[in-house]
Amino acid sequence: MNVADALTASRLFMAPLFFVVFIWGDSLGLPPGAAVAILWALFALIELSDLLDGWAARSMKTVSAFGKLFDPFADVFARLTYFVCFAFTGIMPLWIFLVIIYREFCQLFLRQLLAERGVAMGARKGGKTKAVFYMISGAASLVLWSLRSLGALPGIHEGLAVAVFVLYCVSAALSVGSFVDYLVQFKKISSAGS
């Protein structure tokens, strides 16, 4: 396993830890402040690994068909994990979670169909923009959850919740839009190969 793949794989370990601390932090005896700090550290490391794995693959010339599939899989694995947490607490609307999860599973299916033909469909510009908004929405949700957990700045919770909802709506719209783009690309690749 090269450095880029190791960075990608790290998300598969950090995402479940994020879930455990988020859902069972109290049961583990963690004070709210410690749980908040751990979650922010995990969130930052997850997102940082997503930035660094692509850079490592390009700079070390280890870009591979496997990496092109493994990276988006690990991204979805991690981001859906923290979206589950935010949906569980009501910060993320369930209908938006469903839109996103349906999109991601359909996308993985398209990639699998192309992989059967020996084609690795890498990330596209729309998918990368969507991923940025997933990250921003996740960070804003974690800010809101952190403030609520710590009982800090109660006067801004309601306004922040509205801002988070808007970010999730934008994320859902970008999610659907980028899937349409991938579907068009899939049809082009399929037509060219037939």
Largest sheet: none
Structural class given helices, strands, pairing?
Answer: mainly alpha
* Outline type: globular
- Individual helix count: 6
Encode the helix/strand succession as letters. HHHHHH
Number of strands: 0
**Assembly of the depicted chains:** single chain
Round the Cα radius of gyration to an integer and report it. 18 Å
Share in β-strands: under 5%
- Low-pLDDT parts are none
| Helix percentage | over 70%
Q: Average pLDDT value? A: 93
Which terms would index this structure?
mainly alpha; 6 helices
Topology record:
Blueprint: H1 3-24, H2 32-59, H3 65-88, H4 94-116, H5 125-150, H6 157-193
3D architecture notes:
This protein is an all-alpha fold and 194 residues long. The chain has 6 helices and no strands. The protein has helices at 3-24, 32-59, 65-88, 94-116, 125-150, 157-193. Helix 1 packs parallel to helix 3. The chain is globular and about 55 Å long. The mean pLDDT is 93.
A few lines on this structure:
82% of the residues lie in helices and 0% in strands. It has helices at 3-24, 32-59, 65-88, 94-116, 125-150, 157-193.
